[in-house]
Amino acid sequence: MTDDALVGTWLKESTDPCSSSYPDELELHEGGRALGRMRPGAREHPRWDVGTFRRLDDGRLGITQSNDALGRYAFTLAGDRLTLTDEAGCTFTYRRR
Fold first, then answer.
1. Over the chain, what is the mean pLDDT?
2. CB 22 within 8 A of CB 48
3. 29: exposed, middle or buried (C-beta count within 10 Å: 0-12, 13-18, 19+)?
4. Can you give the pTM of this predicted structure?
5. Is the pLDDT of residue 26 over 80?
């Protein structure tokens, strides 16, 4: 799978508490740019705001976090559903808009 397969606008479907810091909307752009937004009125700052994304050598997805650290996520892409699992074991899902 290429990074281009992930390009698009993604809306978070998960409501688990562990996923609350991940943005409600995630835009992945050609060239590896990423933009995350919380829903209007949200109290939390998104873990991913403005940064980059790329597939890592170990098959995980790397997305820069708000503090510029690189987060590493196991992921699957099945049709219009992107499922990620962070290093703490939190699994959450986005659907392509």
1. 95
2. yes
3. middle
4. 0.92
5. yes
